[in-house]
Task: inverse folding
C-alpha cells in the first residue's frame, strides 16, 4: 500500500507543469533558471516599437543575460503565424502579448498555457483569466495632424465626425469593431443608434489602414488629417519629439491587452519570468515609463492618456465580437 501511495505521489509530482512548479520562486530565482535556457525570450506581440525600445531594454537590464527577440506584427498576423507553426509541429513563441480577443483565439486552438501568476492576485476579475493577465489598457481615441486641422475645427467629441467637413479626411483601422460594440453597449446603449452614427461617419469616406502604429505615422507624416481609431498612448512620445499631432481625450473606448505564455514554450522559465515581471508593480511601472497605460490597479500612466469618459470593453463582451464585426464590415463595406 505504501509503495502504491509513493507511486501515485510521484506521478502527481511529475504531472505538475513547469509553470506551476516555479511560480513559488522569486523573480531572481526564476531568472537563474531562465539563464539555463539560453538567455532568449521570443516575444510575439503588438507592442509598438516606440514603446518597445524603452520597455525591453529595462527588462534586459533588470534580468542580465536575457535578450528579447521581438516578433513584431499585427495581431491577426501573429495569430496566423503561431497557428501555422503549431500545425507544423513547432512552438517557437514564448510570450504572447496582444489584444485579449487574439489571446482567446490561440487558447481556443489549445496553444496557451494555463497559468495562475502570484502577481495577478492584485488584479480585479475583469483584468485576468485562467491563462492571461492584462498587461495594459488601450484607449481608442481620435487624433489629428495639427498642420492639417485648424485650431477652431479640432474635434471635441466623436459626434463631430458626422459633419461633412471631414469628408475624405478620416482614417481608421479596419478591425476596430470595438468602436461599434462600445458605442452600442455603453455610449448609446442601443444598437440601432450606434449603427446609425457609424453609417453617418462612413458617409465621409473613411480610409482604412492596418496597424495602429501605421495610423500614427501617417498622421505624423501629414498623409492624413484625422484618425478615428488611434491609441492614445502612441501620441505623448511622438509629441515630445516634436511631431505635429494632437489627440482627443474627452471620450474614448478602452480594451484590454493581455499577456499569456505559449504551451510548450521553448524557453518556459524565461516566458514565465517575463509574464510575472510584467504583471508585477515593478513591471507595470516600466510599462508606464514606456508610454503604455498600466493595467495594475495601483500603477498610473505617466502621461495623460486616459479618456475623461470611457466606454470599457470587458472580457465578457468578447462573445459578442462576431456579431459586431459583421455589422462593422457591412457599414464600411470592408472585406
Result:
Amino acid at each position: 500500500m505504501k509503495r502504491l501511495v509513493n507511486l501515485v505521489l510521484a506521478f502527481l509530482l511529475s504531472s505538475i507543469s513547469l509553470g506551476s512548479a516555479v511560480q513559488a520562486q522569486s523573480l531572481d530565482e526564476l531568472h537563474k533558471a531562465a539563464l539555463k535556457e539560453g538567455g532568449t525570450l521570443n516575444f510575439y506581440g503588438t507592442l509598438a516599437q516606440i514603446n518597445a525600445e524603452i520597455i525591453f531594454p529595462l527588462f534586459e537590464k533588470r534580468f542580465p543575460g536575457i535578450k528579447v527577440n521581438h516578433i513584431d506584427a499585427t495581431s491577426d498576423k501573429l495569430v496566423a503565424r503561431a497557428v501555422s507553426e503549431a500545425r507544423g509541429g513547432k512552438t517557437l513563441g514564448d510570450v504572447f502579448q496582444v489584444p485579449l480577443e487574439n489571446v482567446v483565439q490561440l487558447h481556443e486552438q489549445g496553444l496557451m498555457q494555463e497559468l495562475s501568476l502570484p502577481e495577478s492576485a492584485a488584479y480585479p476579475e475583469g483584468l485576468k483569466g485562467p491563462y492571461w493577465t492584462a498587461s495594459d489598457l488601450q484607449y481608442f481615441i481620435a487624433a489629428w495632424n495639427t498642420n492639417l486641422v485648424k485650431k477652431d475645427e479640432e474635434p471635441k467629441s466623436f459626434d463631430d465626425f458626422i459633419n461633412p467637413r471631414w469628408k475624405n479626411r478620416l482614417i481608421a483601422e479596419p478591425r476596430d469593431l470595438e468602436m461599434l460594440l462600445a458605442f452600442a453597449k455603453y455610449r448609446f446603449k442601443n444598437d440601432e443608434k450606434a449603427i446609425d452614427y457609424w453609417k453617418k461617419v462612413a458617409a465621409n469616406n473613411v480610409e482604412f489602414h492596418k496597424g495602429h502604429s501605421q495610423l500614427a505615422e501617417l498622421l505624423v507624416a501629414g498623409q492624413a488629417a484625422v484618425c478615428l481609431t488611434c491609441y492614445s498612448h502612441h501620441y505623448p512620445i511622438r509629441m515630445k519629439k516634436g511631431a505635429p499631432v494632437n489627440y482627443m481625450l474627452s471620450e474614448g473606448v478602452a480594451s484590454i491587452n493581455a499577456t499569456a505564455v505559449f504551451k510548450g514554450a521553448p524557453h518556459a522559465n524565461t516566458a514565465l519570468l517575463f509574464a510575472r515581471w510584467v504583471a508585477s508593480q515593478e513591471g507595470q511601472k516600466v510599462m508606464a515609463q514606456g508610454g503604455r497605460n498600466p493595467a495594475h490597479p495601483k500603477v498610473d500612466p505617466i502621461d495623460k492618456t486616459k479618456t475623461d469618459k470611457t466606454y470599457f470593453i470587458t472580457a465578457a463582451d468578447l462573445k459578442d465580437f462576431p456579431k459586431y464585426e459583421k455589422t462593422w464590415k457591412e457599414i464600411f463595406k470592408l472585406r
